[in-house]
Design goal:
By secondary structure, the chain is an all-alpha fold. Helix content is 77%, strand content 0%. Helix 1 (3-15) packs across helix 2 and helix 8 (146-153) crosses helix 9 (157-195).
Length: 196
């Protein structure tokens, strides 16, 4: 969806006409991008879903604040980022409860395999800058083209391509380091086995 098409939907929402249909189209066109941004900032799937919901609530409640002719994608991304930063700020203020110390309260806590997989993915994303992480998530999880990502975050396409390649390079480097470490561990284990 182009920026102009998105602006038409926002205008329709501002005027109050066909609100349900306009919102449905706007949501279907933007939720993957906004979810990817939320996930990149919050690094938590359920918090990213909460942020996505809050982003659309804020968009609708402040729809009159948008001025036509501005970057509609940039407007949505700004709302989403602000929501995510507010969530992070609130989380820092909360007192954390250690589950291991409160087993009677929480019961037997087991990590599911999918949770471990998500943690592994998150560790690869942690080596990236926020901007790189955002671009990778928009590309991989959101399914957006580089041109669409450039438009959404307000950067030239060349910069987006460069940041994406650099991010992929960082993650490949991290993966190869882990593979090298694993190979060295296996080699040292096999040497210990031969000595016995």
């Amino acid at each position: 969806m182009t920026n102009k098409e998105l602006e038409k939907l926002i205008l329709c929402l501002q005027e109050g006409g066909a609100e349900g249909a306009a919102f449905d189209v706007l949501y279907e066109s933007t939720y993957r991008m906004l979810y990817s941004i939320s996930l990149g900032i919050l690094k938590d799937y359920s918090l990213a879903e909460d942020a996505l919901q809050e982003t659309y609530i804020r968009l609708l409640s402040g729809i009159g604040n948008y001025r036509m002719g501005n970057n509609a994608y940039g407007y949505l991304v700004s709302i989403c980022r602000n929501v995510c930063y507010n969530i992070l700020r609130k989380r820092r203020e909360e007192t954390l409860v250690d589950i291991a110390d409160n087993e009677a309260l929480f019961g037997d806590y087991r990590i599911e395999e999918s949770s471990l997989y998500r943690t592994e993915i998150t560790s690869y994303l942690d080596v990236l800058s926020e901007e790189e992480r955002q671009i990778v998530l928009l590309k991989v999880y959101g399914g957006y083209k580089h041109k669409e990502i450039a438009q959404a975050i307000g950067k030239p396409i060349g910069t987006v391509l460069w940041l994406y390649r650099r991010a992929v390079g960082k993650m490949k480097s991290m993966l190869s380091e882990e593979e090298d470490t694993e190979i060295q561990q296996k080699a040292s284990q096999s040497k210990k086995g031969k000595r016995r």
